[in-house]
Design goal:
Blueprint lengths: L2 E2 L7 E2 L12 E9 L3 E10 L1 E6 L2 E2 L16 E10 L2 E10 L1 H4 L13 E8 L2 E4 L5 E3 L4 E5 L3 E4 L9 E2 L1 E2 L5 E3 L5 E8 L2 E3 L2 E18 L4 E7 L1 E2 L5 E2 L9 E5 L3 E5 L6 E9 L4 E10 L5 E5 L2 H17 E2 L1 E2 L12 H14 L3 H13 L26 H13 L2 H23 L20 H22 L5 H18 L6 H9 L5 H18 L11 H10 L3 H9 L6 H6 L12 E2 L2 E2 L15 H9 L7 E2 L9 E6 L2 E8 L3 E8 L5 E3 L2 E3 L2 E8 L1
Parallel strand pairs: 7-16, 13-23, 32-36
Antiparallel strand pairs: 1-16, 2-9, 2-15, 3-8, 3-11, 4-7, 4-9, 5-6, 5-8, 9-10, 11-14, 12-13, 17-26, 18-19, 19-24, 19-25, 19-26, 20-23, 20-25, 21-22, 27-33, 28-29, 30-31, 33-34, 34-35, 35-38, 36-37
Helix pairs in contact: 3-5, 3-14, 4-5, 5-6, 6-7, 7-8, 9-10, 9-11, 11-12, 11-14
Length: 683
C-alpha cells in the first residue's frame, strides 16, 4: 500500500454533527486568493462522502468521493486537477454521512461524525484544512443517507457558519480504483399516473423536473418492480425507505440527488402531477470489452441481464445488491462472479483496490472476513472467506500479472495455515452459509468446508509455481486432502452441488468419480426432471462439472431450460437483471421479502461457462468452443478477439475467428496468426 501524508493539513469535522444518523449535510469553506492563473491540485480524503466545489461549481464528474474502504484501518485520498483564474475564490467541501456514518454504518461506527482532510495547491500557494476553516450544517441538504434517501431544499442557502472542530482520521492510502460516474441516461419508457417505468432495473437515481408551488414537498419513491395492483413493490427493501424529497422553490425546478443512490426500475412521484423524469445509471467507470449474440433471443437477454447486474453492483466495491438495506461487499458473491466480471470488463484495478480492504480486515489468526468493509457479521466461512485466495488467482489468470499474487501471497498463506490449524485440531472447516439459497437440495456444510480448503490448497500449488516457490509441501497436503475427501464423502455425494464441486475441483478419482457423475446426472434428469437445484456455491461449478464429465449435452439442456427453476425462467418472467433467488418471482407471487433482491449477480456466474466453454474463449485467448443445444449460431467478442460458430448440415460446424494484432490466440491447440480464420469441422 502507498502511504500518503497531507501534512500540514488536519482532519476536521462539524461540531454540530452529533454522530447520529439522518443528520444534515455539512459544508466546509475556505476563502483564498490566487494572483496567477494556472492548474490547481486538490487532494482530499473523508470519512463520509464529499463533493468539492470551487466558487460554487463542482470540479469533478466523479461521484461518492473518496470511496468506501474498511474504516477500521484506512481511508483513501483523491487528487483532482483543474484550472483556476486570478482573483478571490472560495473552496467548499460538502460532507455527507455516506458509508461512514449513515444507516449503513449503524452497527460499526460507534457514533462518530464524518470528517475530512484537504490540501489545495494553487499557483500562488497552498490551502490546507485546519482549525481556521468554517463550516455550516444549515443548508439545502437536511439529510442524505444511502439507505433512506435525501431531503433537499434549494431555498436554503448555506448559512450560520461556525468554527470547525479537530477530528481523528485514519491512515491514508492513494486511491487505486475506478471512479464512480454517471454512465448512461434512461428516458421514461412508460408512465401510468405518477408511476414511471424506465424499462430496466438499474443503480442510480432519477432526475425529476417539476412545477409546483413554493414550499410543496415533492417525494420520489424507488422500487424494482410493481405489485399485483400496479403499485410500487417496496417491502423487499426492508428498512431502506429509498425515497428522495425536494422542497419546491416555486415554479419549475429540476432535482437530482447528490449523496445517495438507489436500485430501481420504477419511481413514483408524489406532490406534483406536472413533472418529467429520466434516470441515470451510475457505477464504477469500467471499460467493458465483451460482446455476445446468438440465435436465441432468450439467451441474448440473459447475457444482457448478467451484464446489467454487474454494472449495477460494481459501485466502488463489488456489492451484493443495490436496493435494500444491505449493499455490502460479500466475499462469496464476489468470488462467485469474478470470472464473469473479468470476461465482461477490465475490472483488475476495481478488484485489486477492494482486496486491500479484504487483506486489512484479515484476522491475526489468518481468517478472512466474509464481508468487507465491516461490520464483520461472520468470518472464515467456506466459499466466502476463500475469496481471499480465489479472486487473486482469477485476476492473475485474466491479466498474467504476478504482482497480484505477490501482494496477496502472505495473506493467502495465512488463510491456508488457519484452515490447517483447524484440521489438525479436528475442528470442522466452517461453512455456516452452506450452499446458500439452494432449492431443497442441501449440501453437508463440513463437506463444503473440506472441499473449498482442498481447492484453495490446489490453487496455492499453482500460485507458488507461478512465483517460483517450492510446492512440495502443498503438493503433499493436496494429495492428503484429496484422499481424505474421498474416504470421508465417497458415499455422501448426493446433492447437485456436492457432485459438481467434487468433479470440478478434481477431488474424486476412478470409480468414485464415475459414481459421482452418475449421481449428478440422476439428480438432474430423474429426481428433478432436467432442472438445477444448486445455490450460490454450486451454481458456478454445475455446468463446468458436466462439461468435464463429458456431458456437455446436459449442460446445454440446463442452460436452455425455460421452466422453473432455471436461468431462462427469470427471462421469461420479464427480468432485466439477475435475481437473488431462483424463485424471486413465480406465478405464485414474490418470495419472502425478508431477502428477495431482483438484482444480485451471483447466478450470473453462468456467463463464465457461456464465454469460456460454449464459445470456448479462455482468459489466455486459447479457443475451444463447445457448440450444442438448440442454438444454430453464437458469436462473442473478448478484448477484440472475435469468435463465431454456426451449425451446418451433416453435423458440421463452421468456426470464424478474427485475431487482432495485440492478441496471441490458439484454436484447439494450434496457433492462429493475426487476421481472419475460417474452419469447417465435424461437430
Amino acid at each position: 500500500m502507498e502511504k500518503i501524508s497531507l501534512a500540514p493539513a488536519q482532519w476536521i469535522c462539524d461540531p454540530l454533527h452529533n454522530g447520529k444518523t439522518m443528520q444534515p449535510v455539512s459544508c466546509f469553506i475556505k476563502e483564498f486568493e490566487s494572483v496567477q492563473a494556472g492548474t490547481a491540485e486538490l487532494t482530499i480524503s473523508a470519512l463520509g462522502i464529499v463533493v468539492p466545489r470551487m466558487d460554487g461549481k463542482e470540479i469533478t464528474d466523479e461521484l461518492f468521493l473518496p470511496g468506501w474502504t474498511d474504516y477500521n484501518f484506512f481511508a483513501e485520498t483523491r487528487t483532482l486537477r483543474f484550472q483556476i483564474t486570478p482573483g478571490k475564490h472560495h473552496l467548499t467541501l460538502e460532507l455527507a454521512d455516506g458509508w461512514y456514518a449513515g444507516e449503513i454504518a449503524l452497527k460499526c461506527n460507534n457514533g462518530k461524525p464524518p470528517c475530512l482532510i484537504a490540501k489545495l495547491d494553487h499557483p500562488d500557494g497552498q490551502v490546507v484544512s485546519d482549525k481556521n476553516w468554517l463550516c455550516s450544517s444549515d443548508g439545502p441538504f437536511m439529510y442524505s443517507d444511502i439507505y433512506m434517501g435525501e431531503m433537499y431544499d434549494p431555498a436554503r442557502p448555506w448559512q450560520n457558519f461556525h468554527p470547525v472542530k479537530a477530528a481523528s482520521g485514519l491512515p491514508l492510502e492513494k486511491y487505486s480504483g475506478v471512479p464512480v460516474r454517471r454512465i448512461k441516461k434512461y428516458p421514461a419508457s412508460a408512465r401510468q399516473g405518477n408511476i414511471v417505468d424506465f424499462g430496466s432495473n438499474i443503480t442510480g437515481y432519477a432526475a425529476v423536473k417539476f412545477n409546483a408551488p413554493a414550499g410543496k414537498k415533492i417525494s420520489i419513491r424507488y422500487a424494482e418492480t410493481l405489485d399485483a395492483n400496479g403499485q410500487l413493490y417496496t417491502v423487499n427493501l426492508r428498512t431502506a425507505t429509498a425515497t428522495d424529497h425536494c422542497i419546491s422553490p416555486g415554479g419549475e425546478f429540476s432535482y437530482t440527488p447528490t449523496f445517495t443512490f438507489h436500485g430501481f426500475r420504477y419511481i413514483e412521484v408524489e406532490g406534483a402531477d406536472d413533472f418529467e423524469a429520466e434516470a441515470y445509471l451510475i457505477h464504477s467507470d469500467l471499460t467493458f470489452h465483451s460482446r455476445f449474440e446468438c440465435s436465441s433471443p432468450l439467451l441474448n437477454q440473459l447475457v444482457k441481464n448478467v451484464e446489467q447486474s454487474w454494472r449495477d453492483n460494481a459501485l466502488d466495491i463489488p456489492t451484493d445488491c443495490p436496493q435494500r438495506d444491505e449493499r455490502r461487499g460479500w466475499l462469496g458473491d464476489a468470488q462467485i462472479f469474478c470470472k464473469s466480471a473479468m470476461y465482461l470488463s477490465d475490472a483488475e484495478a476495481f478488484f485489486r483496490r477492494w482486496m486491500k480492504s479484504v487483506r486489512a480486515a484479515q484476522r491475526q489468526d489468518g481468517a478472512f472476513a466474509d464481508l468487507v468493509p465491516g461490520p464483520y457479521w461472520s468470518i472464515g466461512q467456506a466459499g466466502w472467506a476463500d475469496a481471499g485466495v480465489m479472486i487473486p488467482w482469477d485476476l492473475y489468470c485474466f491479466t498474467g500479472k504476478k504482482e497480484i499474487l505477490e501482494e496477496n501471497f502472505n495473506n493467502m498463506t495465512a488463510w491456508i495455515n488457519y484452515r490447517e490449524e483447524r484440521r489438525k485440531h479436528n475442528l470442522p472447516q466452517e461453512a455456516k452459509y452452506g450452499d446458500w439459497l439452494n432449492l431443497d437440495d442441501p449440501t453437508d456444510s463440513e463437506l463444503l468446508g473440506d472441499a473449498f480448503h482442498a481447492h484453495c490448497v490446489n490453487l496455492m500449488i499453482k500460485i507458488r509455481t507461478v512465483l517460483g516457490k517450492d510446492v512440495s509441501e502443498m503438493t503433499a497436503l493436496s494429495a492428503q486432502l484429496k484422499k481424505s475427501f474421498m474416504d470421508k464423502y465417497r458415499d455422501k455425494l448426493h446433492s447437485q452441488t456436492a457432485c459438481a464441486i467434487a468433479v470440478n475441483f478434481d477431488l474424486v478419482d476412478g470409480e468414485i468419480r464415475q459414481r459421482t457423475i452418475e449421481q449428478l446426472l440422476d439428480n438432474i434428469l430423474e429426481q428433478r426432471n432436467g432442472h438445477l437445484s444448486t445455490g450460490f456455491l454450486g451454481t458456478p461449478h454445475l455446468l463446468h462439472a458436466l462439461t468435464k464429465a463429458g456431458r456437455n449435452d446436459i449442460a446445454w439442456q440446463l442452460l436452455e431450460e425455460t421452466t422453473y427453476p432455471s436461468w431462462l425462467y427469470q427471462v421469461t418472467m420479464g427480468a432485466t437483471t439477475m435475481w437473488e433467488r431462483w424463485y424471486t418471482l413465480t406465478e405464485k407471487g414474490f418470495a419472502s421479502p425478508n431477502m428477495n433482491s431482483f438484482n444480485h449477480y451471483a447466478y450470473g456466474s453462468v456467463f463464465d461457462w457461456i464465454i469460456g466453454v460454449a464459445m470456448g474463449i479462455k482468459p489466455d485467448c486459447s479457443i475451444d468452443p463447445h457448440p450444442g443445444g438448440t442454438c444454430s449460431s453464437m458469436e462473442a467478442e473478448y478484448r477484440n478477439l472475435k469468435v463465431r460458430w454456426e451449425k451446418l448440415p451433416d453435423n458440421k460446424i463452421r468456426y470464424q475467428i478474427s485475431v487482432p494484432e495485440n492478441i496471441s490466440a490458439t484454436f484447439r491447440g494450434s496457433k492462429l496468426e493475426h487476421g481472419n480464420h475460417d474452419f469447417i469441422l465435424d461437430n
